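A favour, since you know our structure tokens better than I do. It will help me judge whether the discrete encoding reads sensibly. The space below this message is yours for that.
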Amino acid sequence: MLFVASAAAQLRDTFFDALSHPTIRYFTPPADDPVSRLDRRIAAGEVALTFDPRTGYLPSLLKALQVPVESQMVVFSKTSLQSPRISPDNPRAIFFNDSVVVAWPRGGFVEMVAQDARQGVAFYMLDQQNGTPHITRPSVCMSCHHSYATLGVPGPLVRSVATGPDGKTMPWLGNYTSDHTSPLDERWAGWYVTGKAASFKHLGNTFVTASGGDPDSVATRAFPPPESLAGRFDTSAYPSPYSDIVALLVFDHQMRMMNMLTRASWDVRLAASSPDGDAARVARKDAEKFVDYLLIVDEAALPGRIQGTSGFTEQFAARGPEDRRGRSLREFDLERRLMRYPCSYMIYSEAFDALPSPAKDAIYRRLWEVLSGADRNDRYQRLSLADRQAIVEILRDTKADLPDYFRSIGPSRP
């Protein structure tokens, strides 16, 4: 797999192979994530998945895993184990919630990614044969999902790859891994994008029609996305006719956040298991980058008002939790930036709650240094006093394990 040189350089010192380390034992303990729990409930006869003639187990599976249909995003690049099936006429649909990603191309099997609070992300497959559903955990996914781009731990990644009219990728013309820091004009190559937005440059909904030259002249255009995918392919064969732009923005943020949670946990556990390791020092070092990402500090600015059309925006925001004033870290801005209150909702995830004590303690202390104004670095100037005050107040009401020092005094102007 190819990655842009700058990304590889930034991550060169982060890769390590700890899958078989006795402290991690990635493949050895029984997994405890939403997919493995569902599999055990299916085997026990507590849950039955129903088979649909057109989409197989997909709708029933999404419901069982509490993954909203409104989160659907659609990829037409051949960037999957099932690449022979994928094309602009038969794209791969992706759905997600805070801990699970489900992917499916019409006519293929279902792919699943789930975050175990301790072990990190695991990968699963569900064959689309009518009968008894059987979920498997193949190791072949590691060939792409354990790399520099996933921070050296097994995990998801979002790719933006120049793509031809048949879905074939042309990575030599454009190949990016995306998160919320990525420039918008580098995102979504090989993806369909739907919604309402001002014209701005991105790589979605376009195909590279030449094998050489500058792809920007062909694939990067300034135009508003369509409100639905009707007419692009047979959308009646999919759960939704959308590839929601707001879902895509959230997905870009969350996938790297999931990997950062795994890496923070593994780093501290490995340090604690070493005779000369210093888990507290490792945790403090990791906490700086972790908190910057948690506070969405380096986010690429949005070009103006963006609206989704699938219902994802409303569904996502309604999930809370809310503070006593009805505010939530899931509230969107969608004009200047993604979130109204720039602190990731992933702070409520099982994976965050299960972080080893040194890691969580260091993250909370670093988070307070920034939010309180104790750290006066210019990079935090984009967090206004009102932003920081609101984040602290929301966390006080919604995060049960928040340290007492968050409750002693409010943020001050940096």
Summary: Residues 1-13 have pLDDT under 50 and may be disordered. The chain has eleven helices and 13 strands.
